[in-house]
Design a protein that fits this description.
The chain is an all-alpha fold and about 300 residues long. The chain has helices at about 5-30, 40-45, 50-60, 65-70, 80-95, 110-115, 125-135, 140-150, 155-175, 180-195, 195-200, 210-235, 235-250, 255, 270-290, and strands at about 105, 260. The protein is about 70% helix and about 0% strand.
């Protein structure tokens, strides 16, 4: 077995973690705080670290082609469309699965969403929001859906490329000799725990930051096979960036029309999302086993 790609994968993982944690440490040592706009700038910087490490290793350390090493290709195919729309399906399925959680109810007036963010608004602003929702010619859900997909294919995809050039680019390329599901597990674990410092600061799981670290890792493990499969079929990490961008743009749809639950139970990153992703992974596994879908291999 050729161990060189595995060594490269481990080297990439080590330096990505090291640089990420150094950047976070310096940010707070120089007076940074986890409040906007500083937190947004930090999160965006953090997202581009995997890409930066991958480029440095591929171009200046290994002195090999960036296009080949990061799985870059500009040839568009139907898998780009799947990459764009599959995250929407995940969000909608997570919304449906939320009703499996005790105490979760359907609120078409978005009362549950308003309650979640009540502390950020005055009573007058909340009343105004409710009136605007009631009088709107188009329900905000549909506006959020369209805006999420548009953002997912544009600005979100650009930001997501900072991560995907590392995870589904460099890392996946250097694990191409490993079995698909094992490679996906490795990438999912690395990707998940890489989020740990941000999760502990309140990202995604503000009510349960410690448990959130493990929840995030479970979520990335469940999400990675789908993203890796679409990337390999599209033959480009750009499809992964589109997938990731669309996911960030549409994940809120799972929460807009429900009341109840917590950050651990509802939403795309909660238990409801886990169920949705587990079902999709089961479907992918069965379709691959029955050879209904093409095998996830490099061209």
């Amino acid at each position: 077995m050729n161990l060189r790609p595995l060594r490269r994968a481990l080297t990439f993982t080590m330096f990505t973690y090291l640089v990420s944690f150094v950047v976070l440490t310096l940010y707070f040592l120089f007076g940074g705080k986890w409040v906007a706009p500083g937190s947004l700038f930090l999160a965006l910087t953090y997202m581009f670290i995997p890409m930066t490490v991958a480029i440095v290793l591929q171009k200046w350390v290994y002195r090999e082609s960036l296009a080949k090493g990061l799985l870059l290709s500009r040839k568009v195919n139907r898998w780009y469309l799947i990459a764009w729309l599959l995250p929407l399906a995940i969000a909608l399925l997570a919304f449906v699965c939320s009703f499996l959680i005790p105490g979760v109810t359907f609120t078409p007036g978005m009362e549950g969403m308003i309650e979640r963010f009540a502390s950020l608004f005055t009573p007058e602003q909340i009343t105004q929001m409710k009136e605007q929702i009631a009088l709107a010619p188009v329900h905000p859900f549909w506006l959020a859906l369209v805006q999420g997909l548009l953002a997912g294919a544009t600005v979100n995809a650009v930001a997501a490329f900072g991560e995907e050039a590392g995870w589904r680019g460099f890392l996946l390329t250097n694990l191409k000799h490993v079995h698909f599901w094992k490679a996906s597990l490795f990438i999912g674990v690395v990707w998940g725990f890489w989020h740990a410092p941000l999760i502990l600061l309140g990202h995604n799981y503000p009510q349960h930051p410690v448990a959130g670290v493990f929840m995030m890792t479970i979520w990335t493990v469940l999400l990675t096979p789908l993203m890796c499969y679409v990337t390999l079929r599209a033959k480009s990490v750009l499809a992964a960036a589109l997938f990731h961008g669309s996911l960030n743009g549409t994940f809120g749809l799972a929460l807009l029309l429900i009341r109840g639950g917590s950050d651990l139970t509802v939403g795309v990153t909660g238990l409801a999302g886990f169920v949705a992703l587990a079902l999709l992974n089961l479907g992918l596994f069965l379709l691959l086993k029955k050879k209904i879908l093409p095998q996830p291999v490099f061209a």
